Amino acid sequence: MAASVPVEKTIYLGAFAHCVALAELEIVEKGAIGVDEHGVIGFIEKEVDVEDVRKRHEGWNDAKVVSVKDGFFFPGFIDTHTHAPQHPNTGLFGKTTLLDWLDKYTFPMESSFSSLDKASRIYTNFVSRTLSHGTTTCAYYATRHVEATNLLADICLARGQRALVGRVCMDTLSPEYYRDESVESAVRDSKACIDYVRSIDAEGSIVRPIITPRFAPSCTAPCLAGLGKLAHEADAFVQTHVSENTSEIALVEELFPDSKSYTHVYDEASLLTPKTILAHAIHLSTEERKLVKERGSKISHCPASNTALTSGCCPVRELLDEGITIGLGTDVSGGFSPSILEEARHAIWTSRFVAMGTPAAAASSLNNAAKLSTAEALYLATRGGAAVVGLEDKVGGFEVGKEFDAQMIRLGSVPEEGDKEGVFGEDGAGGPVDLFGFESAEEKLEKWMYSGDDRNCVAVWVRGRLVHKTTRYTA
Amino acid sequence: MAASVPVEKTIYLGAFAHCVALAELEIVEKGAIGVDEHGVIGFIEKEVDVEDVRKRHEGWNDAKVVSVKDGFFFPGFIDTHTHAPQHPNTGLFGKTTLLDWLDKYTFPMESSFSSLDKASRIYTNFVSRTLSHGTTTCAYYATRHVEATNLLADICLARGQRALVGRVCMDTLSPEYYRDESVESAVRDSKACIDYVRSIDAEGSIVRPIITPRFAPSCTAPCLAGLGKLAHEADAFVQTHVSENTSEIALVEELFPDSKSYTHVYDEASLLTPKTILAHAIHLSTEERKLVKERGSKISHCPASNTALTSGCCPVRELLDEGITIGLGTDVSGGFSPSILEEARHAIWTSRFVAMGTPAAAASSLNNAAKLSTAEALYLATRGGAAVVGLEDKVGGFEVGKEFDAQMIRLGSVPEEGDKEGVFGEDGAGGPVDLFGFESAEEKLEKWMYSGDDRNCVAVWVRGRLVHKTTRYTA
Predict the structure, then answer these.
(1) pLDDT digit string (tens) for B369-385?
(2) Per UniProt, which keywords does this protein have (chains A, B) (predicted)?
(3) Which CATH number fits domain A10-75+397-469: 3.90.1150.10, 1.20.58.480, 2.30.40.10, 2.60.40.1120?
């Protein structure tokens, strides 16, 4: 299985949109993006003459053309935090909060991944699901099983989805039936997964390993230290959870009485590096935020999960203002959707609750500065996420020299007489967004942002390779 | 066009679920619901022998059988507050709050409904959309145009969707280009719509009129009083907005300095009756809540809209505990989805923000009593809504003597090898819910609740009449 699949030289023609800066969305209505046989963007035009575009670029005369109708190209989404084995638990959380949720739903499901058949079925399905939502890069937590974790990497590589794949480490405070036996085995098994992932994709162009201590409460200090050492030796990415829930924070204080804070626990184990992704980070103190910033570690914001488990509202705008790098994470199955578009909406909602301050507050006392804009939420979903997973030079936006990770978005056109049968384009495949023809380009994008779903994502490319399509995709 | 369409005597076979009390969801795995030629439920069985069911009920020998696979029957949803003409603005709100949102998006769109062609296209499409999401009853705001409002009633009747259809009254503080000319014309035009709707459905079995002052700021006191008088003379339902946004509340105080509160403004105009639906009711004082309760008026909770426009979080659990009758409203296009299932999720999220109290609070200080459960949110979406629109004796649950307003829910089964192509049942038509086969009946329902969408709603009935279906419906 080759990490680098050759692709046909292609010009992507029609509207495209992407984030050029945190608060700035560029929408180009007559665009052309030329993508070479390595999947790299060779040229971009913004006022294109369709007839002329092939001729004007030397060497592109015979290029294939893929046109988008009733929609636009958008950069692939980047999911900076999700748990692939928890996919079957999506939507199951009831009124639990983090710690009882782990015991009730998560540990029993994850422990069953000792069965490779089960792992294969669930991972195959989950990678299909995330791709169908336009997720071109995903930072996955697997389970503590080496073989099943390696299988997830195989599946991502075969399907062509960029992934960070991590074996979960947990040597304490986890159930007897589901924990690493010792510090040594935890580190050894983690190393085995790193070696395997690097053996199937030496350059890490599609799949890369990531060291994954579940979170401080389920790792002893020696285990964390061993993983920190491994991270430096292997120059590997690290992902874990921090400051998600106040009971969890209290537990960490109790378990690590000599550490200044939850974040310091990781720092003391040399686990805070520029290649570290910290999920949640809701309740960080000023000092902890400073430490994260100093170490250059990144944050994965998971608002849907944080609301579902009533963990709290991460004050994302403050963290952004402090210069911390942030992306979005679906955090399945604390989160209830594998869609980063849905997550971007929840980033908006959570920022609005932060703006309101208390449930009863409203317009007159709004802290408008806390509200994320549509552009900002989409930035977190693409460029922000790219920077979190160390791919800011390769993906996240459309620029010459970047690789073409993209989704084709199509929206539904309402017939002049209205949709009398309620079929919305062959059995609902047209998706939930209705265009009446009088919308501006900005309004089309807003409609997609606030009511679009996977039906609007009709094709997905990674490095120029078509990795997902529906029948509404016509090349 | 007949309001009463004869239907074939039918037995609905298989699992069904419904709310039997506020916090109690009943799930029957081997059910049978017999529906007669008037659309009325004649019998219900809960441990059915498939072969036997027709024989055991006299007169049902020749009944048609409709079976549900991979899913269940659920009562039709009731949307107690939405604005049909704002459908094309769905998803457009940016960072506006109520009063600037009205000026920027709402009034320009609504005023264009002087064109019946435009009204026909948009209303046809919106009724199709709401039906496709399983909404069997809808309380619609139209515009101030008599003809377009009557057209909406015609469309609902033709499609068989139960509806309350209201011409919007507004004789002040609205733009010059979109307001009622006088108190007299406002009352006269409202009466014209009442008369029309009653002329096409004399018994009100499908469509009924509803008197609709937009909200206190856009109606003069004489206009409100005139509508209050009309409501009593015509024995009609009333719908309006109350206490949505703190700036709006301040404006009402300024406009009605002699009234004790926003709610009292309506009471003084005799507009608070047991047939009155008040949307939002976020910031009501204790005294206002008492008044609502005393008058027997109902509340439509619209959490998606309230979050989108940062209006605030309605403390629904407190209102329920006080004995107020509450349903859910999508409030398109303040709300960004025509789906009551999505609205039920937002009722859950909003209740969680109320539970957290402030964005930074969390598990340790949670006010768990404020959290709505899945059962409670679904109750509001069905039985609660039925009581809000005065149909509690007819719909909202499955009981002998009630009319059969229902949706067939189908969920997706994951193949043993996982869905390798990511097509999820012919181009995504299988919908977003993945069943692996090990879920309990309760878990299936939770999965639908937290990640289902219109694709899972494969058929919809009102009074036993099939009013929407997709190709995944097989009778």
Answers:
(1) 899 999 999 999 999 99
(2) Hydrolase, Metal-binding, Zinc
(3) 2.30.40.10
